Amino acid sequence: MNNYEITFIVDPVLSSDEIKTAATTYSDMLKDEKANIVHIGELGLKQLAYPINRRNSGVYFSIEFSTETPSSIGKVELALRRDERIMRFLTVRLDKYGVKYNQDKRDGKIGLKREEKKEEVKVEEKEVAKQDLTKIEGVGPKIAELLAGGGILTYADLAAASADKLKEILSGGGAAFASHDPSTWSQQAKLAADSKWNELQKLQDTLDGGKVATSEEE
Question: Rounded to a whole number, what is the largest CA-CA distance in the chain?
Answer without folding.
Answer: 60
